[in-house]
User: Which sequence fits this backbone?
C-alpha cells in the first residue's frame, strides 16, 4: 500500500534543518563549541540529511536516473570524505580508523557490484545486512572493546552509537537503494489510508501480549518515571530516528523484503525476519538474554505486520518507537 501523502524534498529539508538546528543549539547550551564541535556537527548534519532526504518523494529515482549505479559509489565516497572531515577536525585521525571506515563503506559496495545484475535476495545481500548489523551491535568480547567508540572518540564517545548508526544507514542506502535498486523497501516518510488504524492496532495488541508476558518471565516491572517526562520530546525523537527508523529499514525494508523474495513467500519472510530480529537482541543487557529475544521476536512480528500492511518503514518505525518510548518511561527492566 503506497503512501498517498509523501513528504517532498523541500519539506524534508525543512524537517532536517529544524531538527539539526535544535540539536546544535542544545549542544551549544551544553557547552560544546570550537573546531572539533563544528567538524562533528558537519558530519552529523550530512549523514542525517542523506538519511532523511532519500526518504523524500522522487529523490531516489532522480539520483538513479541521473547517475545510475554511480550514485551509490558517489554517496559512498562522500560518506568516507565526511568521516575524514570529522577525524581531522576533531584531531582523532588515525590510519587504522580510516581504513576500518573505508572497509565499512566500500566492502558492501563491492559486494553489491558483484551482484548488480542479479535480483535482490542473493548471498551478497544477506552478508551485507549481517555485516552492517554487526558494525552497529558487535558480538560480546572479553575486553569490552567497542567499534563505535573506537571510530568516534569525540566527544568522549558520547555520540559513538548515533554516528555508527547514521554511517551504516548511509552505507545501506548507497548499497541497496542506489546501487542495487532494491524495490519495495518502503523507505519513505508519508501517510496512507488506514495507516493510523494499523499503527494503533499493532501497538495495542502487542502491548496486551508483551506486558503480561514480560511480567510473567520477570523481564519488566511497571515503574513509571514521571520525573523524566520533561525529556519526552528529545528522547522520543532520538528513539524514532536513531533506533526505530534504522532497525525497521534493515529488518523490514531490507531483510524481510528480500527473504520474502528469496523464499517466494511473504509469510516465510515475515516470520524469519521477526525471529532474526529477536535473536539480534540476544546481547542486550547481558549475553545470552533469551527473555529479550522472546519479546523482541514478538515485537518484530507486529512491526513486520505493520510494514506488510502499509508498505512503509515509517509506519512500522512509529510502532517500534511507541513501544520503546512506553518501555523507557513506564517500565523498569529487571
Assistant:
Amino acid at each position: 500500500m503506497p503512501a498517498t501523502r509523501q513528504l517532498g524534498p523541500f519539506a524534508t529539508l525543512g524537517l532536517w534543518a529544524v531538527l539539526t538546528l535544535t540539536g546544535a543549539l542544545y549542544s551549544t547550551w551544553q557547552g560544546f563549541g570550537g573546531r572539533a564541535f563544528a567538524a562533528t556537527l558537519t558530519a552529523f548534519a550530512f549523514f542525517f540529511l542523506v538519511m532523511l532526504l532519500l526518504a523524500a518523494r522522487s529523490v531516489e529515482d532522480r539520483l538513479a536516473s541521473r547517475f545510475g549505479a554511480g550514485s551509490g559509489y558517489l554517496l559512498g565516497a562522500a560518506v568516507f570524505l565526511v568521516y575524514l572531515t570529522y577525524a581531522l577536525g576533531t584531531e582523532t585521525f588515525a590510519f587504522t580508523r580510516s581504513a576500518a571506515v573505508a572497509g565499512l563503506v566500500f566492502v558492501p559496495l563491492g559486494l553489491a557490484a558483484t551482484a548488480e545484475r542479479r535480483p535482490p535476495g542473493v548471498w551478497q545481500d544477506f552478508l551485507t545486512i549481517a555485516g552492517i548489523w554487526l558494525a552497529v551491535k558487535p558480538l560480546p568480547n572479553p575486553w569490552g572493546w567497542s567499534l563505535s567508540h573506537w571510530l568516534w572518540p569525540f566527544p568522549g564517545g558520547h555520540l559513538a552509537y548515533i554516528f555508527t548508526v547514521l554511517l551504516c544507514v548511509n552505507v545501506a542506502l548507497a548499497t541497496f537503494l542506489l546501487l542495487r535498486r532494491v524495490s519495495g523497501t518502503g523507505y519513505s516518510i508519508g501517510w496512507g489510508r488506514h495507516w493510523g488504524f494499523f499503527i494503533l492496532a499493532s501497538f495495542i495488541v502487542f502491548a496486551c501480549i508483551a506486558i503480561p508476558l514480560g511480567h510473567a518471565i520477570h523481564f519488566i516491572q511497571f515503574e513509571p518515571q514521571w520525573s523524566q517526562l520533561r525529556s519526552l520530546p528529545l528522547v522520543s525523537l532520538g528513539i524514532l530516528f536513531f533506533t526505530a527508523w534504522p532497525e525497521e529499514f534493515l529488518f523490514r525494508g531490507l531483510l524481510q523484503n528480500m527473504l520474502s523474495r528469496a523464499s517466494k513467500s511473504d509469510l516465510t519472510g515475515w516470520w524469519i525476519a521477526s525471529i532474526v530480529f529477536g535473536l539480534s537482541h540476544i546481547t542486550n543487557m547481558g549475553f545470552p538474554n533469551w527473555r529479550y529475544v522472546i519479546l523482541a521476536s514478538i515485537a518484530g512480528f507486529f512491526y513486520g505486520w505493520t510494514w506488510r500492511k502499509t508498505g512503509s518503514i515509517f509506519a512500522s518505525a512509529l510502532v517500534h518507537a511507541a513501544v520503546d518510548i512506553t518501555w523507557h518511561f513506564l517500565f523498569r527492566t529487571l
Remarks:
- The longest strand covers residues 220-222.
- The chain has two domains: 1-193, 194-334.
